[in-house]
Amino acid sequence: MQKIKLFALVLGFTILGSLKSQAQEIGLRFGDFYGNNVAIDGVFALGEFSRIHADVSFGGNGLGIDALWNPIYADIPDTDFQWYAGFGPAVYIGDNFRLGAAGEVGAEYAFSEVPITIGLDFRPYLFLVEVTEFRAGFGLNVRWRLP
């Protein structure tokens, strides 16, 4: 089990490190996940209509890593908001180890006067490794848009 935990940790940091050069937005995500209440939140471009929404959460009992692919990222008609949906792997490393998948549906607003984006999302999680478990929660994202 220690090898799986180490592999998941190395894989998570490798993915985040390789995407760093393509970062569009970096900030914080506030929400509850296994006692963690804050995460470093980033959005990384994969093309014009696709992106990775990644988080590294900390603050409670361990470390959580999510890397969610958002193949749907579009404007909400007649508003200045955009919505997104996606899915991807989720890992929690702490007293209890969890490995599974997460989904995501959210909306965000990008201020035109300042390079800040705020958003609200809903994430359901289905963990399959060490214990099979379903969890879900909301999060508030505040990110700085990079040039």
Question: What would you note in describing this structure?
Answer:
By secondary structure, the protein is mainly beta. The chain is 12% helix and 66% strand. The chain has one helix and eight strands; from the N terminus they run αββββββββ. An eight-stranded antiparallel beta barrel has the order 1-2-3-4-5-6-7-8. It is elongated, with a radius of gyration of 15 Å. 29% of the residues are buried.
Short description:
The protein has 147 residues and is mainly beta. It has 1 helix and 8 strands; from the N terminus they run αββββββββ. It has an 8-stranded antiparallel barrel.
* Distance between the amino and carboxyl termini: 41 Å
Beta-strand percentage range: over 45%
Q: What order do the SSEs take from the amino end to the carboxyl end, as H and E?
A: HEEEEEEEE
Structural class: mainly beta
Estimate percent helicity. Answer: 10-25%
| Spatial strand order of the main sheet | 1-2-3-4-5-6-7-8
Biggest sheet statistics: 8 strands, antiparallel, barrel
Q: Sum up the overall morphology in one term.
A: elongated
> Which regions are unreliable across 5 or more consecutive residues at pLDDT < 50?
none
Give the integer mean of the pLDDT values: 85
- DSSP summary, beta strand count: 8
Spatial extent as radius of gyration: 15 Å
**Separate helix tally:** 1
